[in-house]
Design brief:
The chain has 351 residues and is of the alpha+beta class. The protein has helices at residues 33-36, 92-98, 112-123, 153-163, 196-202, 206-209, 264-276, 297-313, and strands at residues 2-3, 9-15, 18-24, 54-56, 64-70, 77-82, 85-90, 127-136, 141-146, 167-170, 173-179, 182-186, 191-195, 223-227, 237-239, 243-250, 258-261, 283-285, 289-291, 316-324.
Length: 351
């Protein structure tokens, strides 16, 4: 961390080719490595959203500059002065110290800075799919399991791990960029925030593998941050790898799996909504201050175009919706030698 002549502390990172400079008038605001480097395997770590934040010297011309000015006597304020330049002012230290939920603090994985990272990555041409993802090396397919909170995408990843034969590519976000008609997929996060109920009742065989024990309280209200780095894909990027898109809805009491092709007319809207999940919603910072959405009509237009390009250019070999229990969520999808075709044209309906 550097300290300049203006009384500001600075810290630099790079993320997927984007340079980031953090500035603050209090060094404590930038020194918590539970957020940036994942120390302590905390639920609030940014590494549960992104693969890695590589520490670099702060740069004057960074793609993103995020400044924090702690001023106990001033009201809370948030502003964007120019492209890639953001400022928060007010009694920041008081709010950060008093908050009982670090995930909703500025640098928490559900906080404002995470949304800004996703937005600014988009400005650099890197888009973020709200998904878990895993690679089937035997058949050379990358599975992208798309879904919002509660859809069951984490359950599908846990099922794939329990089956074996896969390598983890992302636990919460998977990124892509398109250059010259070629789609490059970029590795996402490798820390999984697991709801313990999923492990205790659906995949108890994974508890010893993750070094976990059954919690004393209600497992459905208990989360643990689990490192999947020892299961990760060796490559940081895939260039034009065949993709299988999966859209799950997991119901614990369901017996049989209903797997259906997703019609091409339905995929575009679903993908656009998914790409917006981590940037468009407003933020309730510290559970106290409402920060309006940082999304804009211009960014939404660019995101829709990115979704169209992805569906038109990426080597998608199948897209399936899955309505199932945790144990049957990959039936008919993985492992599978010959998934049939691209996006299906016939109309389909979920049950």
């Amino acid at each position: 961390m550097l300290h300049d002549g203006d009384g500001l502390y600075s810290r630099g990172f790079s993320l997927l080719g984007m340079t980031v400079t953090l500035k603050a008038n209090r060094c404590e605001l930038l020194s918590d490595d539970e957020y940036f480097l994942g120390k302590g395997a905390r639920l609030h770590s940014l590494l549960s959203n992104f693969c890695k934040l590589k520490e670099i010297p702060p740069e004057a011309g960074s793609d993103l500059t995020f400044s924090l000015i702690d001023s106990p006597a001033s009201p809370f304020g948030f502003s964007q002065s120019a492209q890639g330049k953001y400022l928060i002012t007010g009694p920041i230290m008081d709010y950060e110290s008093a908050s009982k939920n670090k995930r909703a603090c500025i640098f928490g994985n559900m906080g404002l800075f995470s949304k800004i990272l996703v937005r600014e990555l988009e400005c650099k041409g890197v888009y973020s799919i709200h998904s878990t993802s895993f690679y089937d090396r035997k058949n050379n397919r990358l599975y992208i399991v798309m879904g919002g909170s509660g859809s069951g995408k984490s359950t599908v990843l846990l099922k794939a791990i329990s089956l074996g034969g896969i390598e983890v590519f992302g636990t919460e976000l998977t990124h892509f960029s398109i250059t010259g008609g070629r789609t490059k997929m970029h590795k996402g996060s490798l820390w999984q925030n697991c709801r313990m109920g999923n492990l205790v009742f659906d995949f108890p065989e994974l508890l010893p593998r993750f070094g976990l024990q059954t919690p004393a309280g209600d497992p459905w209200h208990t989360y643990e941050s689990v490192s999947l780095m020892d299961m990760q894909v060796g490559e940081d990027d895939f260039d034009s790898v065949p993709l299988v898109l999966v859209m799950p809805r997991i119901e614990g009491e369901r017996r049989n799996a209903s797997v259906r092709p997703v019609p091409a007319t339905s995929v575009l809207g679903a993908l656009f909504q998914n790409l917006s999940d981590k940037v468009s919603p407003p933020t309730l910072l510290w559970g106290k201050y409402f920060v309006p959405s940082i999304d804009t009509p211009e960014r939404q237009t660019a995101r829709m175009e990115a979704a169209r390009n992805f569906l038109g250019e990426a080597p998608i070999v199948g897209c399936r919706s899955v309505l199932s229990s945790p144990q049957t969520c990959l039936n008919g999808i993985f492992p599978l030698e010959n998934i049939d075709g691209y996006l299906d044209s016939q109309e389909g309906q979920d049950e």
